[in-house]
Amino acid sequence: MAPEASGGSKVIAESNGPVALIVGASGSLGDALAAQIAPRCAGLGLHAFRNRGVCDARAETLRVLKCRAAVFTADISDWGQCRKLAESFLGEFGRLDELYLCAGVAEDSLLSGIDAALWGRVMGVNVDGPFFLLRHFARQFARQRGGLVVAVGSYAGACGRSGGAVYSASKSALVGLVKSAAREFGTFGVRVLCVLPGFLPDSKMGRAAGSRFVEAVRESSCLRGFGGTEDAARFIAGLAGMEWTSGQVFNLDGRIIPAV
Ligand SMILES: NC(=O)c1ccc[n+]([C@@H]2O[C@H](COP(=O)([O-])OP(=O)(O)OC[C@H]3O[C@@H](n4cnc5c(N)ncnc54)[C@H](OP(=O)(O)O)[C@@H]3O)[C@@H](O)[C@H]2O)c1
């Protein structure tokens, strides 16, 4: 049973920095990103689905910073829970300057084994969720006439992966959503970007990968190796300062994506 979307709890006093929300802050990449951006944020919303404890622990470490942290829970595959998340967040902080969409799921299966339920679960989190959240924050972004959205895609979305058809399809769809949102939101000064983290060996997903897959990734990298969640989080955190980028898709590892 999915937890209901719930509001945040105030932690500490604020400064003049931006207010950010990390969706999927309980995940490996989201938590690393929280540690990177918190020092420059006045407010930081940390979203979890089932593992709220990770966000509570991260919020606790932010007490020493001038960053007011609040933890939210929601199943982002649910339209109503996304609306409640947006309302709770704006009720708590009053604005949203940076939205990081890090939540994602991968359920691998060969095409012949994919049924409608599996397809729906992965699409629900990786595509419906980002759409629902953009939709529920759109009016606020338009009112503010500025902001940043970073959606986390995957190399698999650009290149496909045997056994990863649903995941690849979902991450491809995310790119189309990002590019369309960038065109629409750009008219009121909001930047929308997508990053493809590549393979993150120290993440939950990365630790679950088989050795043959890991070796194949290593072989196809120009650098014959890869970084980790800290490296990907550092790149994502830096996008706030890249003022004239929007509608772009950044590949974060050493594999070259073939042109279509
Ligand atoms: N790890 C990699 O090697 C890799 C490579 C390329 C791209 N990516 C992408 O990078 C992003 C982050 O990956 P990660 O390694 O940090 O994954 P992770 O550690 O497995 O974290 C996944 C996050 O998604 C959240 N989530 C799952 N189902 C949800 C739902 N129904 N509603 C709301 N949130 C939900 C989880 O929340 P709870 O834990 O609280 O349930 C968690 O915060 C994902 O989009 C992934 O596709 C990862």
In short:
This protein has 260 residues and is α/β, with parallel strands linked by helices. It is 44% helix and 14% strand.
Q: How would the blueprint of this fold be written?
A:
Layout: E1 19-23, H1 28-37, E2 43-48, H2 52-61, E3 68-73, H3 79-93, E4 98-101, H4 116-144, E5 147-152, H5 155-159, H6 165-185, E6 190-196, H7 204-207, H8 211-220, H9 229-238, E7 249-251
Parallel strand pairs: 1-2, 1-4, 2-3, 4-5, 5-6, 6-7
Helix pairs in contact: 1-9, 3-4, 4-6
Bound molecules: NADP nicotinamide-adenine-dinucleotide phosphate (NAP).
NADP nicotinamide-adenine-dinucleotide phosphate (NAP) binds next to helix 1 and helix 7.
Number of structural units classed as domains: 1
Judging by the overall fold, what is the CATH architecture? 3-Layer(aba) Sandwich
Tell me the strand order in the biggest sheet. 3-2-1-4-5-6-7
- SSE arrangement, N to C: EHEHEHEHEHHEHHHE
- Uncertain runs are 8-14
CATH level 1 name: Alpha Beta
Distance between the termini: 41 Å
Global morphology? globular
Radius of gyration: 18 Å
DSSP strand (E) fraction? Answer: 5-15%
**How can the largest sheet be summarized?**
7 strands, parallel
Using the coordinates shown, work out and report the CATH topology: Rossmann fold
| Helix proportion | 40-55%
Q: What small-molecule ligands were found?
A: NADP nicotinamide-adenine-dinucleotide phosphate
CATH superfamily: NAD(P)-binding Rossmann-like Domain
Average pLDDT for all residues: 94
